[in-house]
Amino acid sequence: MTRIKEQVVEMLRDIPEDKAIYILEVLKGFKALYAEDNKNSALNEINPTAMGIFKKYANPDLISKEKDAWGEAVKENLHIYS
After folding, report:
1. How far apart are CA 41 and CA 37, in angstroms?
2. Using one digit for the tens of pLDDT, what is the confidence trace for 40-52?
3. Is residue 47 within 8 Å of 36, Cβ to Cβ?
4. With the C-alpha atoms ordered 67, 60, 58, 51, is the resulting torsion angle positive or negative?
5. What does residue 40 show for φ and ψ, rounded to 5 degrees?
6. Cβ–Cβ under 8 Å, residues 15 and 23
7. Residue ranges of E strands in the chain
8. pTM for this structure?
């Protein structure tokens, strides 16, 4: 067992028995999230996204502007209609 897991176990030992059910539910939630992340990453390996498929066609000069492109387009269209 790794040191971090040992620390977790030690902390769990200090939790009162009547409160342990809450910790158990939290851990179940984390386990479900972890399982879903693994499932999604496996799906992405099989079915790549459009961004991954078309990356080779991207204009390197415009990549840094992609994050704000949608917002800028909306602003431009709002000026047209006002």
Report:
1. 6
2. 655 555 566 666 6
3. no
4. negative
5. -65, -40
6. yes
7. none
8. 0.39
CA atoms of 61 and 58, how far apart (whole Å): 9
* CA pair distance 41, 71, nearest whole angstrom: 29
Q: Which tokens in the block code for residue 37?
A: 């992340």
Structural domains in the chain (count)? 1
Q: How far, rounded to the nearest angstrom, does the alpha carbon of residue 37 sit from its chain's CA centroid? A: 8
DSSP 47: S
Domain housing 46? 3-81
DSSP letter, residue 15: S
Rounded Cα distance between 34 and 17, Å, is 26
| Separation of CA 13 from chain center | 31
**Alpha-carbon span 23 to 14, nearest angstrom:** 12
Task: For the chain, give the mean pLDDT.
Answer: 78
